[in-house]
Structure formats: structure tokens, C-alpha cells
Amino acid sequence: MDIFGIPLPAMLSQLLLGLVNGAFYAMLSLGLAVIFGLLNVINFAHGALFMLGAVLAWMGMEYAGLNYWVMLLLAPVVVGVIGVVIEKTMLRWIYKLDHIYGLLLTLGITLVIEGVFRSIYGVSGLPYSTPELLAGATDLGFMILPNYRAWVVVASLAVCLATWYMIEKTKLGAYLRAGTENPKLVEAFGVNVPLMVTLTYGFGVALAAFAGVLAAPVIQISPLMGQNLIIVVFAVVVIGGMGSILGSIVTGLGLGVIEGLTKVFYPEASSTVVFLIMVIVLLLRPAGLFGREK
Amino acid sequence: MDGQSASRTQGPQGTQASAPVEGGAARRGVPRTVPLLLYGLLLLALIAAPMAGAYPVFVLKVLCFALFACAFNLLIGYTGLLSFGHAAFFGGAGYVAGHAMKVWGVTPEVGLVLGTLAGAAIGYVVGALAIRRQGIYFSMITLALAQMLFFFCLQAPFTGGEDGLQGIPRGKLFGVLSLSDDLTLYYVALAIIVLAFALIVRTVHSPFGQILKAIKENEPRAISLGYDTDRFKLMAFVLSAALSGLAGAIKALVLGFETLTDVHWSMSGTVILMTLVGGLGTLSGPIVGAFVIVALENKLGDIGSFLASATGVEWFNSLGESVTMVTGVIFVICVLLFRRGIMGELQALFSRSRH
């Protein structure tokens, strides 16, 4: 069966690839939104920390023989701790300043992290193989489903939904949302807001690292892998707006799928389609799809 | 709106830091002639530089970045808008000017005008879209749109893709004066850059510039005074983009090639860094910042080997290859400790010693 002259299996496999990318967009924009909500900082370093997650997975395998599953848990923890250190030592000092300083500071942090890994590993890709359990593919009859890609989509969706549940439905999430609205008042109720801010940043970047480990077997690991991604994720954030958690997830996945479909029908535009959609959204709905202007 | 007005009082300059801009220093009793004298000396030094043995092409490269940073500063320093997409105007104009001079065979002045117009046109599109959103979204939109242009330049046939546009001829100015001699080119380009800088100074001190400052300090207030702030922001954006385009076009003419480096987002980062190091919202800061950053990029290897021999730490020898890392460290230091930049700090020091 063909759709617009494209064989169905080819179409479905691009769709799946799009979903995989969309899952990364969703996880990264979710982290950006959570961090921005509480810290008022746009974390440019998100891409670098995503890269760090992937490189840590590779390092764990290379130097310590730790397999994928161990690193899938360990790398986010390590990056989360690094995030806590970054927040405690640097970000803390700029909350009262204009937004732009947050962007510039995290840009500096990005350049340092990328610079360090570039001087060690260069810019060429590091090889990382798919974990044995998920190697191979399943024949669904109408398409061949690579197991690992399916796992990436399922795992990231699970993490995204768990995050959504935590923020929207639990007591902790209620504190977090209250802190986003009015940190002073929440503090007056006896909640340790500075600690909450630190942990939120740690959690946000841990999410990026988790995405990084998931990406390690499908995207070539290199010190520069985060920087192109983060700019696309910025566009995703502009399209979706940072006001809604579920909105970030849906926008991320949706744009990934659209990007995947563009690869089928008009490959030349696949790297710019997200930006084009951003332009259209800005023209039609300046506040973003799920936006409330902050 | 609430968070915005709160952050506005602590704008890029901060309430206290905004005093020591050049105009402010003059009001506090620093003779108006001092900055004028310094600019005069700088100009004399630039005129004499090639005779003193400086390599003209290198000085011009620094000057192009200085003009680029001054144009960028017009937005961040005087209007309070952080554009993260200025590479698009700088590099885009370089490609247009280069293509016009190489393929269409136009004379250099036409090439520069076309480059400037290209910068303005790209700036109009990017600006009109970006000012639809406030604050940090503005920066993200400019970054995303500039990245779009980067991908366009990567794929478009006339840019030469990864190889870039090579062998741009210098041609004859007005069809008469050949620019193939480095010295002739130097003085022509210097004159254009000085004029562009004068335009920026004039703009900053004009009523238009005052309105921009009002928007930066308190946009809701400017709106309530009856100013169509979106229109003024767009005009400032287009002017800044046009001058960035001029800088990019001159750079393409001087160096004779144009590559993807100039449209890459890291170029936008570099110009932000230059302005930040020199001092946001100071007239001379971006010039100083451009000089410091270009010198640093060129001399980092030497500094590294000097540090290695001075301290005995072998690692410093590899400093030359870690420009990115050093740039990042400077960013972090500037934001955390040194927000006024070199000229901002100097002016603060100067006005303090007078009281």
C-alpha cells in the first residue's frame, strides 16, 4: 500500500524515527519548562547536559564496563548532582537580575562543558551499541519495528507522564506549582524554597541526561550533539509555550512526527521545518499554542 | 507583566550601573572633552597603525568585529533587547555582498550597499517576528530564526555550502580606485567604519535614542506616554541589523571569502561576549571588547605556552586548542562578577574618584 507514492513501511519507519526525535524534544522542553517555571532561567546548558548524559553512558561502558541499564540510572544521578553544584555555585547569584543573564551564564557553562569534552574526545562520533536485550527488530506484519526505537518512545513517554503526574497530582508538585506562582508566599508557609529550586534544577537536568543516555545508541555521540538539538528545542518551547507541562510533551512529540514526515516528502526542508512552524505559530498565535505570557 | 516590571529595574545595566554611561559621566562633572579626546587619539592611532607595522587586514578584521559589536550594542545596551541571532545579519550580508561582487561583478561600494540592505531586510523579517514575544522568548526566537538561515546557507547552491564562498574580488571603488592594495583598502574601509560608528553615536544621542532608552528602562511607561514601542523596537532592530550587515559585508570584502562560521550561532555568541566584556550600554565598550576577544582568540596559544613556562603546568600548552572553553569561562566570570564590563567598570571607577 502506498500513501502519496511512498510505500507504507518506509513511511511508518520515518514516523517512528520522528517519534524518537519527538520524545527527545518532549523530555528536553519539559525540563526547560520546569526549570523556567521556578528559576526564571532559560537553561541553555540543557543541550550540553543532554550530551553529558550520552558521553557518561559511553564512558561507563568504556572505562568501567558498566552496561547501558546501569548507566541509564547512574548518568542522570551524576548529571543531577552536577546540576545541583551549578545551581548552588552560579545560578543562585543571578535570580534577581534580568532574564538575559541566566541565558548568558548557562551559555558560558555550555561552552565550558563542550570545550572540555572536545579537547578530550574531538568532534568525531563515539560508537555505542544497542543493549543486547533490545537489539534486533520485531516484524509487525505491516512494518519491521526496531525494538530499541520502540523502547525509546515508551520509556520517554513513561518518564514524561510520570513527571506530569508528580507536578500536577502530588503534594510535592503542588508546592512546586505554588513556588512558580509566588515563591515568597510559599516560603512564608515554611517551605524551603531555595532547596526546592536547587532540586528542581537538578531534576530538570537529570531528565536531560536520561534523554542523553536513551539517545546514545541512536544518535552519534559527540561533544557537539547537544547544541543543534537545544536550538530546535528552543523553537519547540516558543511554539508550545512554557506554561503547560502536558503542552510541552504534546508539542515535542508532534513536532518530532512532523519533522519525520518532512523527511519523507521533502527532505531538504527537514532541518528547517520546526523553525517554519514556529514562524507560522508566531504569526497566528503569538503567545504559543499552550502559552500564557509570563 | 508583574515579573517583567520587577526585572526591569534590574535591567542589563541595573539601576545603579546605568549611571556611568558616557553621557552620565559627563553630567557628573567629567569634562565632555575627555571622551572626545580619547576617540580622537584612537582614530589617529588607527590612521597611523599600518605605518607602525600593524598588518592592515588584521586591524580591519578587528574593526569589522568592533562595528558589529557596536551595532549589536545598539539593541542590547540601549533598547534592552537581547538578540541571539545577529550572526544571521553579519553572515547573511557577507554572503550577499560576496556573491554580488564575485558573480554579478558589481563594484565594491555597490556590494557593500547590497550587503547592508540584505542585513536590513533579514533584520526586518526576524525583528517583526521576534518582537511579537517578550523577554527571553525574544532571544529564543532570534536564535531559532538565525539557525534557520544557517541551514539555508548550508544547503543553498550560491553559498558554496561547507566550502564557503571563496575568491571574492576586491574590485575598483566606483570603478576607478583599485582596492587590491592593502593600504588603499584599509583607509577606505576605515573611513566607512568611522562613519558608521558616528551614525551610532548620533543615534544614541538623538531623540530616537532617548525613546529607545525609555523603552529599555520601563516599557509600559513608554507605552503610556504614547509611544508605539513595537515600532521603535523594530526600527532599532533593523538599524542594528543593517549596521551588522555592513560590518559583515566589509569583512567579506577585506578577507575575500565568506564561510558558514559567520552565520553559525556561535558567531552570535561571540558578538554577545565582545559587548559584555567591553561593557553593555557603553559607546566605547564594544570596541574594546572586540579587540580583547579577537586578540585573545589569536594569542591564546602564546598565552598558554607563557603560562606553562611560568607555572610549570604542562596542561597550559594545550590552551590554544581550547578557545571554546576559555570563552565559556569568560562568559561565566563576566556574568557573575563583572557585569559592567571593562569600560563600565572604568567609568564607574572614574566617576567614583571624582566624588
From TrEMBL, chain A:
Topology of this chain in the membrane: Multi-pass membrane protein
InterPro entries on file: ABC_transp_permease, BCAA_transport_permease
Transmembrane segments: 32-59, 66-86, 98-117, 148-167, 199-219, 231-258, 264-284
Principal cellular location given in the protein's record: membrane
Keywords: Amino-acid transport, Cell membrane, Membrane, Transmembrane, Transmembrane helix, Transport
Gene Ontology terms for molecular function: transmembrane transporter activity
Localization (cell): Cell membrane
Record's protein name: Branched-chain amino acid ABC transporter permease
Family: Belongs to the binding-protein-dependent transport system permease family. LivHM subfamily.
GO cellular component, one term: plasma membrane
Pfam family, one: BPD_transp_2
Organism: Cupriavidus cauae
Gene Ontology process terms (BP): amino acid transport
